[in-house]
TrEMBL record:
Name of this protein: Dihydroorotate dehydrogenase (quinone)
Cofactor: FMN
Keywords associated with the record: Cell membrane, Flavoprotein, FMN, Membrane, Oxidoreductase, Pyrimidine biosynthesis
Lineage: Bacteria, Bacillati, Actinomycetota, Actinomycetes, Kitasatosporales
InterPro entries tied to this protein: Aldolase_TIM, DHO_dehydrogenase, Dihydroorotate_DH_2, Dihydroorotate_DH_cat, Dihydroorotate_DH_CS
EC number(s) on file: 1.3.5.2
A Pfam family this chain is assigned to: DHO_dh
Domain Dihydroorotate dehydrogenase catalytic: 50-348
Organism per entry: Streptomyces ortus
Free-text comment on the cofactor: Binds 1 FMN per subunit.
Pathway: Pyrimidine metabolism; UMP biosynthesis via de novo pathway; orotate from (S)-dihydroorotate (quinone route): step 1/1
Repeat found in the keyword field: no
UniProt catalytic activity: (S)-dihydroorotate + a quinone = orotate + a quinol
Length: 371
């Protein structure tokens, strides 16, 4: 039904307009008590066996919505109603900014991918903090807050911009993510180099601790799939050294040629980050590499090209405690979360693992023990 609607209606509309429209429906449904209770019962059924704990936070399951969909934290309950066990809001920047001008979101339907160059369009850390402060949650869902650099702030002053966001947002964040991997803010990805990343993560950690004294807000870093393998290892080692809580792998890619894309060449050539199915193999590879390096010392979050329960299961076996997705939501629609939960619960039941936690990284551990 959704797929037919998508093909007949949505593909004829501008992708960003569809996003805003879908967003409005989700928010509206979440505001009507009967509708949201019914929707949550159908779309977000709980599976006891999927209960997950990550960096000290308890969740109904491992599957959540990746950053970028709800940049300003306006639809957390609606998204929770659709079955996302955690919702990562943002990227939020120190100051409000409009993002890039013009058309900035493109569908690669034949490849089940998206290209975006949104450029962190968001209302800024003060406004988003104020919204989170005034929020009365309907559903108890874990809220991650993803922060990034304001475009006009020079690279040398990036840390102060992140610190500003961290101080304002940490009190309302179940976990905090330092995003240094979006390709759409000039220079941002340079911050992944350990000599820049070490002081940045240290400063954000200190800011979160200053701002929230009653608990320790878990801190994660989100990395790009385009890092060379040695750089993935370097970030992993740094994360261990700094006592980081997690690594999110991965953001969108700037790669094109090597991915064998079948969509229209003009769309493929659009500048921006590519997400969805074409990203699947590399994201999985980065995740495996991270798990092989850090094991259970750091929680890993697998994201990039997750389309169905099998993909989510593969991420868990490769080392992910949590799994996220974004692009496939556009192609699969509101039943997506439900299908992933159901499929994951079925896979766990027929697997040799007693719990989901036992399955985390099992593939990588098995490969190691047979080498
Ligand atoms: C339109 C769009 C906007 C995004 N915005 C952000 C963002 O603001 N911050 C961020 O960390 N990731 C952002 N992402 C990246 C996603 O969170 C995710 O890492 C990436 O899309 C790979 O997952 P997927 O293949 O399931 O989409 C965005 C992705 C898309 C498609």
């Amino acid at each position: 039904m959704y797929k037919l609607f998508f093909r007949l209606v949505f593909t004829r509309m501008d992708p960003e307009r569809v996003h805003h429209l879908a967003f409005r429906w989700i928010r509206l449904a979440a505001r009507i008590p009967v509708l949201r209770t019914f929707a949550a019962a159908v779309l977000a059924p709980r599976h006891e066996e999927l209960r997950t704990e990550a960096f000290g936070l308890r969740m109904h399951g491992p599957f959540g919505l990746a950053a970028g969909f709800d940049k300003n934290a306006v639809a957390i309950d609606g998204l929770s109603m659709l079955g996302f066990d955690h919702v990562e809001i943002g990227t939020v920047t120190g100051e409000a900014q409009p993002g890039n001008p013009g058309k900035r979101l493109f569908r690669l339907v034949r490849d089940r991918g998206l290209i975006n160059r949104m450029g962190f369009n968001n209302e800024g850390s003060a406004a988003v903090a104020e919204r989170l402060r005034g929020r009365t949650p309907v559903f108890r869902t874990v809220v991650g807050v993803n922060i990034g650099k304001t475009k006009v702030v020079p690279e040398e002053e990036a840390a102060a911009d992140y610190v500003k966001s961290a101080e304002r947002l940490a009190p309302y964040a179940d976990y905090l993510v330092v995003n240094v991997s979006s390709p759409n803010t000039p220079g941002l990805r340079n911050l992944q180099a350990t000599e820049s990343l070490r002081p940045l993560l240290t400063a954000v950690r200190e800011a979160a601790d200053r701002s929230v004294t009653a608990r320790r807000v878990p801190l994660l870093v989100k990395i790009a799939p385009d890092l060379a393998d040695e750089d993935v290892d370097a970030v992993a080692d740094l994360a261990v050294e700094l006592g980081l809580d997690g690594i999110i792998a991965t953001n969108t890619t700037i790669a094109r040629d090597e991915l064998g894309l079948r969509s229209d060449a003009a769309v493929v050539a659009e500048t921006g980050g590519l997400s969805g199915a074409p990203l699947k193999a590399r994201s999985l590879e980065v995740l495996r590499r991270l798990y092989a390096r850090v094991g259970d010392r750091i929680t890993l979050v697998g994201v990039g090209g997750v389309e169905n329960a099998e993909d989510a299961w593969q991420r868990i076996l490769a080392g992910a405690t949590l799994v996220q997705g974004y692009s496939a939501f556009v192609y699969e629609g509101p039943l997506w979360g439900r299908g992933i939960h159901k499929g994951l619960a079925a896979r766990l039941r027929t697997s040799p693992y007693a719990t989901l936690a036992d399955a985390v990284g099992a593939d990588v551990r098995n490969t190691r023990s047979t080498v």
